[in-house]
Amino acid sequence: MAASEATEASNGMSRRAFVAAGGAAAGIVALGASGAAPAQAAEKGSASADATAASGETTVGYDGTGVMPWLGEEPSISESDVSQTLECDVLVIGLGCAGVPAARAAAEAGAKVVALEASSALNSCASDMAVLGGQTQAKWGRGDGYLDPKTIVNMHMSESSHHCSQGIITRWTQESGGALDWLIAPASDLYVCSEEHENVPQESQSSFLYPYYYPMLESYDYTKEAMPCYPTSVGFSNLAAVMKENLQVAIDAGADVHYDTRAVELIVDGDGAVTGAYAQKLGESTYLKVTAKSVVLATGDYLADEGMVKYFAPQVVENQVPTMCFDVDANGDKTERGDGIRMGVWAGAKVEGWHAPMIHYMGSAMGNNGYLWLNLDGKRFMNEDIAGQQLENQVELQPQRKAYQFFDASWPDQLQYFPAAHGVACYYRDEALPDYTASGLRINVRTPDDIQSAVDEGRCLTADTIDDLLAQIPDMDVDAAKESIERYNELCKAGEDTDFYKSSQRLFALENPPFYAAECGEALILANLGGLESDADCHVYNTDRQIIPGLYVCGAPQGGRFNVQYPISLKGLSCSMCVTFGKIAGENAAAGK
For 89, 308, 343, 347, which has the most beta carbons within 10 A of its beta carbon? Predict the structure, then answer.
């Protein structure tokens, strides 16, 4: 059960690294088989690009009846089915980016902790964290008071259409800086870079922390952007290593960790309080019973459960968006099955509406930069100067759900004018980055060799004339495309986009050969974020929106964080919330408050 993250420890590749390496083209794991019970992986180690809709099954969404077809039947477990019983103060279910901090925080508070993880190791695929304030950020002049929390909160509420919990978002602005400081404290070997692209000493290249966009690009002023990306984020070259050290703190304090052990049902007493859970070790028919004063759900998201995705995000299925699921148990079966949400509902919890697909549109050879984009009809269809999620939304509306991004030989001089934002190539280098460079740092940099490699690998087309370039694009309406390019060049030279109102600083005419065209299809969905209704103390609400005693939630199954779509203004916000509220959940669960 990952915190909506892939198993970096066991797979050796994070989602971020997979996307940076061109994972959309290299291999995709599709949604698992559907069914009323929790879905199992289709095949061990399979990597299929087949979308869920291709199965021919009807998409099932909310129909107003209150029926949840994905829920399945609650297990009926008797004492005779139990082969082992454990007692603890705090039971943490799931050891990902939220569960590990929860286990550490509870153990440090003096609680006796038991932790269950369905995978064979802790899960950590994230690499980025959006952070406000704190001592670590102060090293780069981004400490307390650097950004106005009001601006951050209001932007997040707007991006979520005001469906999320403002109390949760506000508390994140108040405590994320301290949470980062706390997270890295046990990581004695973690090297903290002085700037984004520092040359890291050889002895520290296995694990380092860096500030994104520091120093900031001279041409980028987030206060003047229609869709700002706030300079809040840090990145880890190896967050899994830091998470391991955090978990070791919990183990040293007495935490009892059980891998390949999947929680299947919460224990609820006669008053409706949660007092533990039943779990099952992989391959065993009997159950482990864990009684606890408090239970923390940190079980990750539900992308491997087709029924849940169909119900909560039918548009993802209908648009055939490819899905990434890496978290697996010892048998190779996917563990991102929504177990925490399912168990919570059986225990009386309320699931929030308006779940948020996390689709980071990373573009292709030249990132998701706002150059000229044309669909296969040869038509320009948007203001290209928008962020990744919004680009995905637009591409899904095009013929064959595909578009092409056009740029010319002047690209090395133009990158500096694009936004310092996720997925955007905004740094030019003559030489390749060092081999040890973290995957997150590679996303925003382009070298001549990068573009040549894209051409050699067929990810980017090139020609010395527009006619020859367009002739290489399958199914492209060449005549219409030529007209669109001529029109775009006129707008660029006039300095004003009167067709789609793109910022004038990113209007670059196609006039200097060689010319390039990069195919941009649909991106991957990395998680579908939505969960149990909760508050800023990580309490879980029942269907009457009353607190369920003894039950806490953090990470992907925590509701109130993201709604409608994943926001683009804060790079690495999900991971940061996992850590921040994982810490809060562990502390509160230990204190019983």
Answer: 308
Across 9-102, where does the E strand assignment appear? 82-93
Across-strand partners of 294? 90
Residues 6+ apart with CB under 8 A from 207: 187, 189, 190, 191, 236, 237, 238, 241, 242
Using alpha carbons, list the distances in angstroms from residue 268 to 290, 293, 348, 411.
12, 11, 9, 61
Domain borders along the chain are: 8-123+242-359+525-591, 128-240, 372-520
Helix then strand then coil, in percent of the chain rounded to 5, is 30, 20, 50
All residues at 6 or more sequence positions from 544 whose CB lies less than 8 Å from its CB, including other chains: none
CATH of 372-520, one of 3.30.2310.40, 3.30.70.1140, 3.90.700.10, 3.30.160.340: 3.90.700.10
Report residue 577 as tokens: 């919330």
The number of residues making up the chain comes to: 593
Integer Cα distance of 281 and 261 in angstroms: 4
- Paired with 408 in beta bridges are 515
Cα–Cα dist 476/470, whole Å: 7
Query: Is the separation of the CB atoms in 348 and 515 below 8 Å?
Result: no
* pTM of the predicted protein model: 0.90
What single letter denotes the amino acid at residue 290? V
Residue 358 structure tokens: 């996390």
Q: Which residues of the chain have pLDDT under 50?
A: 1-57
Q: What is the pLDDT of residue 426?
A: 97
Pick 8-123+242-359+525-591's CATH classification: 3.50.50.60, 3.40.50.1820, 2.120.10.30, 3.30.1360.40.
3.50.50.60
